[in-house]
Amino acid sequence: MEQLSRTAGFLVAETVVQRVDSPGFASYLGTGKIQRIKNLVIDTGASAVITRHNLKPSQMLTLERALGVEIVDRTQLILQIFSDHAKTREGKLEVELAQLKYELPKLTGMGHSLSQTAGGIGTRGPGEQLLEKDRRKLSRRIRFLEKQLKLLRKDRELTRKKRMLSDIPVVSFVGYTNAGKSTIVSALSSCELIVEDKLFSTLDTRTKRVKLHTGQTVLATDTVGFIKDLPHYLMQSFRSTLEEAAFADLIVKVVDASDSFVRNKLRTVDETLKEIGANSVPSIVALNKIDRCANSWLEELERAFPGAVLISAQKLYNLEELEKAIDDFMRKEFVEETIEINQDSVPTFMRFRNHLTVIKEEYLGEKVKIRYSASEKTHKKLVSSLKEVGS
Ligand SMILES: Nc1nc2c(ncn2[C@@H]2O[C@H](COP(=O)(O)OP(=O)(O)OP(=O)(O)O)[C@@H](O)[C@H]2O)c(=O)[nH]1
Ligand SMILES: [Mg+2]
């Protein structure tokens, strides 16, 4: 929460912990804690109180009245960060949609208390009538945004299809926010992507062409970071962006090795991948930031994650090993096949010429017999293209 708060531009003055079984109180916190926080707000001159959980509209109102400062809950905090970091048109629309969807039910929930307090909380007028108007306005805007996003997503789908057709394997870098995904993709592609010691620096997927030192070319996709309990509305809005990860031949799960919660964070990554339907894509684990780890910790990690590649993207340690792991994977997917085609199909075969290695060619009268090695993907595509031209 502290890191999220700082990323959203707050200075954290104090942290207060209350242990409860469920944060379901009408006022979220007990009266004693509220009094203590009130004193802290006065002493530190704090301008806002940030809560670890999402609050019900009634809890928010009660706290706001009791403490006299702005209350920001977890979802609002993350929405704020996303809103500050959104750069593309799609990203901006996605954030606005999530914000509105979060606000709409709050507006409904506030109806009752607002009509009693004559609209004291930043809403213009008293009573239900105005609220009803606001609600309708919000709903209209939500529908508009959804329509715009649908159009943008069509474009993106086209780009993605082109990429799939290009035959160059796609590697997605996914992981917890701040794990170093953008740093890795930048280092591999010698391109500068936005790298910041902030959460959710990347909100759009970016794809870069990378030539591995082994000679293999891949498309490396940098993606939006994950976080535990990503607010539902954001998950919905960013679904299509997150789903980019699913359209990969290989996923590299990036984890910050210097974080003592490596295991938990990896679990969040797996859960999110499952949620977006990417859990069946083959993956490898890259433990990043090893320059910040003690040797004993690295030994422990090696034991706990046997297949993982240990790297430091910033110090460029061991990146060749990561490239080799990617390359090895791509090679394992290669198949050797023999086909017989007639002259009419030769142009179709030639379109694939750059993406496979011909081992042997034999001319049998009207037909050509070819033995080649290619990725499973290329092989399947070639076979279906040949079927189309009737060979
Ligand atoms: N010490 C150390 N720092 C690193 C390493 N790799 C990345 N960092 C730092 O970690 C921070 C986050 O890196 P990013 O590449 O922006 O992380 P990300 O996973 O793209 O994060 P989001 O886009 O916010 O999800 C930056 O301050 C990087 O400089 C590393 O190997 N060692
Ligand atoms: Mg990033």
CATH classification class of the largest domain = Alpha Beta
Largest sheet: 6 strands, mixed
Helix content: 40-55%
CATH architecture term of the largest domain: 3-Layer(aba) Sandwich
Characteristics:
about 400 residues; Rossmann fold; 4 domains; six-stranded mixed beta sheet; about 50% helix; about 15% strand; elongated; binds magnesium ion
What does this structure look like?
The chain has 391 residues and is of the alpha/beta class. Helices cover 48% and strands 17% of the residues. The protein has 14 helices and eleven strands. The strands form three sheets. It has a six-stranded mixed sheet with strand order 4-5-3-6-7-8, with helices on both faces. It has a three-stranded antiparallel sheet with strand order 9-11-10. A two-stranded parallel ribbon has the order 1-2. Helix 4 runs antiparallel to helix 5 (89-117) and helix 5 packs antiparallel against helix 6. The longest helix has 39 residues, at 127-165. Magnesium ion binds at residues 181-182, 201-202, 222.
List the helices and strands and how they pair.
Elements: H1 2-7, H2 31-44, E1 48-50, H3 57-67, E2 70-72, H4 74-85, H5 89-117, H6 127-165, E3 170-175, H7 181-189, E4 206-211, E5 217-222, H8 232-237, H9 239-243, E6 250-256, H10 262-275, E7 283-288, H11 295-304, E8 309-310, H12 319-332, E9 334-342, H13 346-351, E10 356-364, E11 367-375, H14 376-388
Parallel strand pairs: 1-2, 3-5, 3-6, 6-7, 7-8
Antiparallel strand pairs: 4-5, 9-11, 10-11
Helix pairs in contact: 4-5, 5-6
Magnesium ion (MG) binds at residues 181-182, 201-202, 222.
